[in-house]
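Title: Prediction job returns without error message
Component: structure pipeline
Severity: low
Priority: P3
Assignee: unassigned

Description:
Job completed but the reporter wants confirmation the result is attached to the right record. Sequence as submitted:
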Amino acid sequence: MQFGLFEEFAFVSAPWAYVNWIFVVEHFNYVSGGFDRVGGSGSVKDNNNITIPTLIVPRNGYLFVYCSNESAVNAYFNNLQVIHTRGPLLEETHYYPFGLTMAGISSKTINGPDNKIKYNSQELQSKEFTDGSGLELYDYGARMYDAQIGRWHVIDPLADKIKNIMYSPYVYAINDPIKVIDPDGKDWYFSVRQEKGKWYIDITFKATIINNSDQKFSDKYLSKLQGQITNQLQKAFSKDFGDVKFTMKADISVSKKEKDIKWNEHVFRITDGLVKASDRSEPFGVATAIAEFGGKEIFIHKDFVDKIASGTDQNTVPHETGHTAWLVHPDLNYYDDPRTYYSSAWQYLTGQRLYGNDLTNNLLHSSPADNWTDLNRTQFYAIMQAMGMGIVNRPTINNRIDIVR
């Protein structure tokens, strides 16, 4: 290699020799990179994690580390080490509606363990035989699902239920997996059917109660609270409008530990009154209760639980649960509301604004009485619209209020 006069003098203080690194994602698109130059003539430079930063890998890909020397003198790279601190092994999988994998835009860790929990968090029976073949079926507990044909191989064990008789007992999610899911092979989160010109909409709400406060509650007391929450939700979210009937089935349990909370449950957390929030460093004070828009967590102050368990307050639990389904305050009062910056826009889009006498007895009024439990037709339709858009059930079970951004 030949060098001109300028290059010869340019590396008198230190040769043009570097430790280089380049990070690319799995399709070899460049993400980041850098270099660190060696020391001067006759010197030893410690190229450690002070001069070479710790690299946080943002997604699956490859890190190339190499040495280079473009000068006319020798440079020595002794004791070069790359220390790999392993984080969680991640897999990114995209699915077609009925469960087949979009292989072109999905990825998995190289040489990592084979992840069996996939579509709808169900276990895929795959490659379980010694010859490498498998059933390629999802185990939903009650029955096995074939994503290649979008059908079950056995009939629905609840096929005789009135809301199921309109569909084949072999279809998955009434042939509408965009709006409907089947968590266990037996039932849905909601279903829609029509009989003799009347629409029937059945909504299933699944949640658990956990005590995160310093106050002790007996099992008998929590069981009483469980019953009240169940009854209040089913009463508030069930209504017959003549041409359409909404029916809520509330499946409420009690959990003693965080590990008992299931992925498909909302969480009623009994709290001491201070709750972390994603948009602020200081905790947010909860006087009665608060919930996340479209999220899964509802926080109830420990001193307010008695009013709910005794049945004195019939509004708070359904009111906050309504927020998780994107029901907003119809009187447009959003002062000091930390949950969302989109309340006004969503209210306008779904027509949830109410005035005058229409606000009386409404469940979602910002300052309701204890016994205000009414929902109008527009509010029920807003719940269905939120479900159809897929903006409910945000995976936010982390014991804090997550703000919608």
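Comment from assignee: result matches the submitted record. The two ends are 55 Å apart (CA to CA).
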